[in-house]
Specification:
mainly alpha, globular, transmembrane helix, RDD, about 5% strand, about 140 residues, membrane, single chain
Length: about 140
């Protein structure tokens, strides 16, 4: 049985607007964001017992608010900004607010953030058409 020549069944390679940020850098950025949310929660809600359901909920809400607000204003959360990561659309443009909210909520579900494709984009990025790219390059000394 011979196959007729025709269009390739493989998808076209995805053209990304920059170098995808590495997994280690992205994990470090989310850890910074989470730690900042814990610290802010302790300052604002110091009366809550750390580790309680109320405290955990407060930390999660602060995390969501921080990531959404900073990504909307600066295309990067606090931790991403520190580590030189930007979150952009596949064409390099800024994400709309609704895409940022959906992306952040998917990150909170954890699984979409840890399952990623061969380009390094997580399910949360694929769902909203975004990519986390390196926004600054290390200085090379010659």
């Amino acid at each position: 049985m011979t196959q007729k020549p025709g269009p390739s069944t493989l998808p076209e390679p995805l053209e990304l607007p920059g170098e995808v940020a590495g997994l280690g850098r992205r994990v470090a950025a989310i850890a910074i964001d989470w730690f900042a949310s814990i610290l802010l929660s302790r300052v604002i809600f110091g009366q809550l017992t750390y580790g309680s359901a109320e405290s955990s909920f407060a930390i999660l809400m602060i995390f969501i608010a921080e990531v959404v607000l900073f990504t909307w204003l600066m295309s990067a959360s606090f931790g991403q900004r520190l580590l030189g990561i930007s979150v952009v659309r596949l064409d390099g443009g800024r994400l709309s607010l609704w895409r940022i909210v959906v992306r952040t909520l998917l990150i909170c579900l954890i699984i979409p953030a840890v399952v990623y494709d061969n380009t390094g984009r997580g399910l949360h990025d694929r769902a909203v058409g975004s990519v986390a790219i390196r926004s600054r390059r290390p200085v090379q000394r010659t």
